[in-house]
Amino acid sequence: MNVKLKPEKYLKYLYLPNLFATKRTREILSVNPTVVSQRADAEKVVVSVYDFTPETLEEKKSEKVDSVYHYKDRDSISWINIDGIRKSDVEAICNKYSIHPLIIEDILSVDQRPKMDEVEGVLSCLLNMLYFNEEKKTVETEQISIVLGSNFVISFQEDPARDVFDPIRHRLKMPKSQLRQRTADYLLYGMIDLVVDSYFLVMERLGDQIEALEEEVVRKSNKRSLARINQLRKELIVLKRNIAPVRDLVAGIIRSENELLEDRTTKYFKDVYDHIIQAYDLSENYRDVMMSVQDLYISNVNLKLNEVMKVMTIVTCLLAPATVIGGVFGMNFDVIPYAHHNLGFYFAVSLMFFIPLVMLYIFKRRGWF
Questions:
Q1: pTM score, two decimals?
Q2: Average predicted confidence (pLDDT) for the chain
C-alpha cells in the first residue's frame, strides 16, 4: 500500500504562532483606511456583457474594455461585468461612462468598508462576496463594486474564477423573466440579493463547524479545542465585519430618492434588508454560542483540575493517619505504649488501615466522591 505523506501539513504546527493562527489575526486586524493600498494589477481581465431588452439578448465576452464602449448609447440595458481589476482599464471604462473619480478610487481600493454612494447621478455599491474555504476552514472575501447608471450596470470583481451571479445569467436568458422586463435598478437588486443570500451559505458552514466544536468540547476538550475556538471567533469577526455595513448599504438605497431607482423596486430592496438583518442577527447568535463554548471549555478545564485536586486531597487525607501513627511510634522516647509489645507493630499497622477505611466510608456517605 502506497501512503503519500504530507510533512508540510504537520510541520507548520512546530511553529507556535501557526498553531493559534496569529497570522490570521494580523490579516483581520491590519486594516488602516488612512494608508493608500497598492492594488496589484490583474494579469488577465475578462469583460462579459449582457445587453438586453424584453425581446432581445446579446451576450459577449472580451479581454478589452474598449469593446463595450458602444453599449453606452443604446436604448437597451447593459450589464457589464469586469473580472480582474486593472487600474488603467477601470479608469478608462469609468471615464467613458462618466463615473466620478471618487467612485473610481473606491473601486481600486483594498479592504474597503461596504458602502453606498450617490455621485453626479450615478449610484455605486461596494460590498464583499464571502466564500468558505473548506481546506483552511476560513472565510474568504472578494470585493465587488457595482455601479448603476440610467441604462447600465457595471460590476467589478477581483477573482474571475468564482462569483454568485450564475442565477442572474440564467434568468437573463429567459425572455419572460422579471430581469428582462424591468429596468437596471432591478438588476442591481438581483445582484445584491444574491450576494446577501451567499452569506447564509457561509454561515451554514460556520454553523456546522461550531456545532462540531461544541460536541468536541463537551466530550473531550484539549488544547486543540482552544485553538479551534480561537480560530472560529476570528472567522466570526470577518463575517460580522462584512455583514453589518451591508445593512446600512441597503437601508441607504431604500431611503434614496435617486431617479435611477423606481418606486416599485423599493419593496424588493426591503426584502433584501430583511434578509441582511436576519444574517446580522444570526452572526450575533453565532458569536454568543462561541462565547458559551469558550466558557464551557474553561469550565471543563476547571472541572478536570477540581477532579485532580479532589483525588489528591482524598489520598492525602487517607495517608494522614498512617503519617500520624508512624510519627507517634517513631518518637525518640524510652517509654511508648505498645512500642516494645510483641503485637505493637500489628496494632499500629491495623490502625493505619482501619482509620482510612472509616474515613472512606464517611466520605462516601457525604457524597464527596
A1: 0.79
A2: 85
Residues whose CB falls within 8 Å of the CB of residue 210, separated by 6 or more in sequence, listed in order: 232, 286, 289, 290, 293
Radius of gyration of the chain (CA): 34
Write the single-letter amino acid at 360: L
**Hey, what's the cell of 368?**
464527596
- Domains of the chain and CATH, by start: 38-300 (3.30.460.20), 309-366 (1.20.58)
Is the dihedral angle over the CA atoms 7, 9, 13, 15 positive or is it negative? positive
Tell me the three cell numbers of residue 86: 486593472
Rounded-to-integer distance, Cα 273 and Cα 144, Å: 19
CA distances from 114 to 34, 175, 274 (A): 16, 33, 17
End-to-end CA distance of the chain: 50
Question: Could you count the other beta carbons within 10 Å of the beta carbon of residue 306?
Answer: 10
Residue 332 has pLDDT above 90, yes or no: no
Average pLDDT rounded to a whole number, residues 296-311:
86
The C-alpha atoms of residue 107 and residue 206 are separated, in whole angstroms, by 29
In this predicted structure, what is the pLDDT of residue 39? Answer: 73
The rounded distance, in Å, linking the Cα atoms of 206 and 300 is 23
**β-pair type (152-157, 77-83):** parallel
